[in-house]
Design goal:
heterodimer, A: mainly alpha, B: alpha+beta, 9 strands, globular
């Protein structure tokens, strides 16, 4: 995941592929996705014990944030 | 995996706290010392920790930590500063934003060049809130579909 000065810069980047345009996100969308407990609780002493339980929350949030775009689905 | 879950919890915290404290990973001998283990046992814990599914990996063919989300143990374009002091690098643009959760109550600054034009980007976050973004039009892009991230972690 790379950062660009704007959507236009991302689309102009040599690594941009039109078929992957679902991979474009705003900064606010990124911050929301990475505010799930899976990220917030990395400082918790039992993080590894609970990692498997935290992951579904992140996936559910990602689904909502991206409008369930196929690019962000775990299964194609 | 042979390491007890409780030990993996402790190892994860030791590794994360090392990044928070000094901006670098622990070598397995340091991890062993912190856990009260022999160096070889510490190496085994590190390998098991990397096998838990957290976004982290070793340098190919070594026991050296290359990346341990949200941090990277080698320089990336994502420089992380806390309260004005540059201390580490983020694993990727996504994880750069997640660094803030490890520094509660503090401003975390992400500085990076735009990969298209090379001009600077600067984002300040504090406990999940974007305090400032320069420019305000920042976008993120990843060209690998989410379902393919696990086998391509370093490129995702």
């Amino acid at each position: 995941m790379n950062l660009f000065r704007s959507e236009e810069h991302a689309r102009r980047w040599t690594g941009f592929r039109p078929e992957a345009e679902g991979g474009l996100l705003t900064l606010a969308q990124m911050m929301e996705a990475f505010s799930a407990p899976m990220f917030r609780e990395r400082g918790a002493g039992d993080y590894i014990s609970r990692y498997a339980q935290l992951r579904p929350g992140f996936l559910a949030g990602l689904k909502q944030i991206t409008g369930d775009h196929p690019f962000w689905r775990l299964k194609g | 995996m042979t390491t007890a879950l409780e030990t993996l919890d402790r190892a994860y915290q030791q590794m994360m706290q090392a990044f928070v404290r000094r901006g670098q990973a622990l070598h397995y001998t340091e991890l062993a010392r912190d856990l009260g283990l022999t160096p070889e046992a510490g190496r085994g814990v590190l390998l098991d920790l990397m096998d838990t599914g957290v976004p982290a990996w070793l340098y190919d063919g070594t026991d050296y930590v290359a990346s341990f989300a949200p941090f990277n143990n080698v320089p990336t374009q994502y420089r992380i500063s806390v309260e004005g002091h540059q201390r580490s690098f983020a694993q990727c643009g996504f994880e750069a934003l997640a660094v803030c959760w490890l520094f509660p109550g503090k401003d975390v600054t992400i500085e990076a060049p735009c990969l298209d034009c090379g001009e600077a980007l600067r984002v300040v976050v504090r406990e999940g809130r974007i305090v400032s973004a320069e420019p305000s039009t920042i976008y993120a892009f990843v060209d690998i579909p989410f379902r393919e991230w696990r086998p391509n972690l370093a490129y995702s």
